[in-house]
Amino acid sequence: MADERKDNPGASFSELVTQWERNFDAFANQVMGTEAYSQAMNEMQKTQLGYQRAFSEMMAQQLAAMNIPSREDFVQLMDMLRQMDRRLEKIEEKVLLNDKPASKRKRPARTKQPQVNKDEGKSEGKSEGEKK
Amino acid sequence: MSESTNPLDPEMLESVQAFVQQSVERGRRGLEIANAPPHPVGLTPKEVLYTRGTLRLYHYEAQTDEVYRVPVLLVMATTNKAFIFDLAPGQSMVEYMVQQGFDVYVLDWEAPTYAERGLTLADYTQDFIPTCVRKVQEDSGVEDVSIIGYCMGGVLSLIYAATHADGPLKNLVCLTTPVDNSKMGLTQVWNDPRYFDVDYLVDTLGILPAESVTQMFEMQRPAQRLAGQLRLWDQMLDDDFVDNYRAFNRWGEETLPLAGEYLRETTKELSWGNKLYTGELVVDGKEARLSSIEVPLLSVVAEHDHLAPRETTLPLLELVGSEDKEEILLKGGHVSLIAGPNAVKRMWPRLNDWLAVRSV
Fold first, then answer.
1. For chain B, what are the domain ranges?
2. Alpha-carbon torsion B265, A40, B209, A52, what sign?
3. What is the pLDDT of residues B197-214, one digit of tens each?
4. Which of A67, A111, B106, B303 has the maximal Cβ count within 10 Å?
5. Nearest CB to A13; choose among B53, B65, B234
């Protein structure tokens, strides 16, 4: 091991990084796994969301005042388009159901049999063709 | 002063020179990587069979003269791209399965749009998966379909299987699939209902941004990113290492946002209520009891999985009603179980052994 390290200084660097990562993660997980951390983290997140929500509402009011469509308006439009798309797709499926062209792709036969390795009771997935 | 500390010592000069040269070369490679286009992934030949909103269904081209009768549908977790199944030639689970003679389909996800913020467990398990199963049946011409679900994709597959007990499912494979959410460790602490206001979060954002999803994963191993970058610097001249790093890094960076309603429902029903485990989960009016699942089931779990710890996956075999069931515990972590150089040796051959004999 010592020789290996002497020949390859990178190996000891890699070990050092792994050790540091392990120790840091263990320490961080100890701190972050507490109820106090969870409470603080979630409170901070809620405060950020509160600011974000207030800003979004203010922006929506400004856009409405200027008669400009808001994100919500666009989303509603997208929802309507999506519903239309879905309905068209259903119609298309029904129309094509009786008029389905045969696939041009060459399909392999679904005849493959697993080869059981008797020594270990495991399959090796050989096809009949391959066995021959 | 000893001889070895003489600044003119030729051996020392040589090693300093080598160190400087390597550092310059590492820096050059680092710049190359930083300016390079995204690492190519998902290279196994495939066609897009079906798309709808966030959903993508791929079918992979056969690479053998014969395939097993039963097609296989891989179901990805909604937070990540499915190219982790097809990371790189020689390190692709899909490529391996195709070469073993399986007819492989993959259910992948794109980032849900704001208009898709209302997607629920019912959409994923009673619409998207059944639709894809039907598409696979139509495309393959075979009634039976096997499903392999990864992580939350495994949870969705379990709910689908539990609510479609009479359905066409032939075999179910769950890869690192958490069932008992009370044992989720850190995420369970952070999701404490006394402090985590999921309603406020979802009502404000609509969609949980990808950055928040990534942060949630990374916070469980806070040193991982920096340690990875240090390892990359150290191994910068090893092309295989760099390629692997870039492929995995791309997967991590392309984490997907999460539909708000889905987050609300999974938090309340699965995380707080632990209803998949208790058998009380109801999706779209249907009871999703794991005991209803009677098809052959394989659970593959990783020894060092920090995202779906062993304790969360352990009860699966006890809960399902299947007679033919098996758990395989392998070395590795949540991701290295299914992708990368170790998966090639450890998991894929075991999966092949189990699934092949049940796919005829």
1. 46-356
2. positive
3. 999 999 999 999 999 999
4. B106
5. B234
